[in-house]
Design goal:
alpha/beta; binds 1-(beta-D-ribofuranosyl)-1H-1,2,4-triazole-3-carboxamide; eight-stranded mixed β-sheet; 44% helix; nine-stranded mixed β-sheet
Length: 425
């Protein structure tokens, strides 16, 4: 199935015949994404994205399909590619292609095909870009800098992409304005924590079906994603161990009740390892050689460089696929190690990514940020911009009301108190 593809004038997907199943998935996601649906309705008459051509490079999931459809409702034309070779849901991609949407994505593509897809989306000369991981915008900067003059702005979905863009802007080389969607409170404080926590455990369970209770669960990196994974694994009864390089992050893990130690020590006692650092070479040969028989290795960071797979290949005597997304490596020392999802994002490759409810807020921020770029892009500088506080509160308020919750309101007196310096002891 993986290498079968159907090509049309404006798409390349695995199998158009799976469109109906994809439509049902998208329908399900729509029923869980009230904020985005609300915004879609709100802007459907106004069409603030009219005349905008958006090139998107973001996991082709049922939630992304809802975002794409909302962008189109607001007047945009889109051309899309996936942002990871293993994260495309082929049913969803088929449904989008069958609806006439330009999409280049199939599960299991290689790296060359990955960049081919990005190039295809650039052929329609975008006025806005949307990234998850910054591969699209990096391609524009490296290969097509002349396109920047037509680009009003771009958005970036994830921590790793924002890091790359800040590095690019830091060198003074960013060619058009970008909004760091990841840094919105209604994104990182929910998607990165609760989304990653649940979907990563979901991926591990689908690939292994192992019991978490009583296992030593090693989380490398105690940022927002690592914290979510730790919290959910602890909830299932695992003993969580955290490895870190940043003193304050390590302290937070310790005060949240987890053991903290270097990877060299954790390697000897871990049953399940997950990397969530955004950095390379977090688990390398010397760690793998110390691991217990049966250890499970996976990653939930954006790129597949956190577990050094070349090292694992080097020390193996044989390997075999045990079940989807689960490969058994027999090492020279006789022990077996199981690598999930080829070291790529386990939550998207082995499960379905974050749940719709949480993507609702992330993608509402994407939607509003692209409208902002369309309206104001000409007057923005070539910088990485944060999302305004009002947008965060707007998204939060719509979500709360969709969840049938209401909150208190400050009285005038309280408002005065909270904004003054005069009242003390
Ligand atoms: N992510 N998207 C999904 N279901 O569409 N799941 C996760 C989905 C995004 C998430 O916002 C994170 O920042 C990024 O994937 C990492 O590549």
């Amino acid at each position: 199935m993986e290498n079968m593809v159907t090509t049309g004038d404006n798409y390349k997907v695995a199998d158009l015949g799976r469109a109906e199943a994809g439509r049902l998935r998208i329908e399900w996601a729509e029923s869980r994404m009230p904020v985005l649906m609300h915004l879609g309705k709100k802007y459907s008459d106004q069409k603030p994205l009219k005349d905008q051509r958006i090139a998107g490079c973001l996991h082709v999931t049922k939630e992304t399909a809802v975002l794409i459809k909302t962008l189109i409702t607001a007047g945009a034309e889109v051309s899309w590619s996936g942002c990871n070779p293993l994260s495309t849901n082929d049913e969803v991609a088929a449904a989008l292609a069958a609806d006439g949407i330009s999409i280049y994505a199939w599960h299991g593509m290689n790296v060359e095909e990955f960049y081919w897809c990005i190039e295809k989306t650039l052929e329609f000369k975008p006025t806005l870009t949307l990234d998850d991981g910054a591969d699209l915008i990096a391609t524009i900067h490296q290969k097509h800098p002349e396109m920047a003059k037509n680009l009003l702005g771009g958005t970036e979905e994830t921590t790793t992409g924002v890091h790359r863009l800040r590095a690019l802007a830091g060198e003074g080389k960013l060619l058009y304005p970008v909004i760091a969607v990841n840094d919105a409170e209604t994104k990182w404080d929910f998607d990165n924590v609760y989304g990653t926590g649940q979907s990563s455990i979901d991926g591990i369970l689908r690939a292994t079906s192992i019991l978490f209770a009583g296992k030593n669960f090693v989380v490398a990196g105690y940022g927002h994603c690592g914290r979510g994974c730790a919290m959910r694994a602890a909830g299932l009864g695992a003993n969580v161990i955290v490895t870190e390089v940043k003193p304050t992050a390590a302290l937070k893990a310790a005060l949240d009740g987890y053991r903290v130690m270097p990877m060299d020590e954790a390697a000897e006692i871990g049953d399940i390892f997950i990397t969530a650092t955004g950095c390379k070479d977090v688990i390398v040969q010397r760690h793998m050689e110390k691991m217990k028989d049966g250890a499970v290795l996976c990653n939930t960071g954006h790129y597949d460089c956190e577990v050094n797979i070349k090292d694992l290949e080097k020390i193996k005597v044989s390997k075999k696929t045990i079940r989807p997304n689960n490969v058994e490596f027999t090492l020279k020392n006789g022990r077996k190690i199981f690598l999930l999802a080829e070291g790529r994002l386990v939550n998207l490759a082995a499960a379905e990514g974050h749940p719709s409810e949480v993507m609702d807020m992330s993608f509402a921020n994407q939607f509003l940020s692209l409208i902002h770029c369309a309206r104001e892009g000409k007057d923005l500088n070539n910088e990485v911009y944060d999302i305004p506080e009002e947008q965060d509160q707007e998204v939060g308020a719509i979500k709360l009301s969709a969840m049938n919750m209401s909150i208190d309101k400050l009285t005038e007196e309280q408002e005065k108190y909270i904004n003054s310096w005069e009242f003390g002891t």
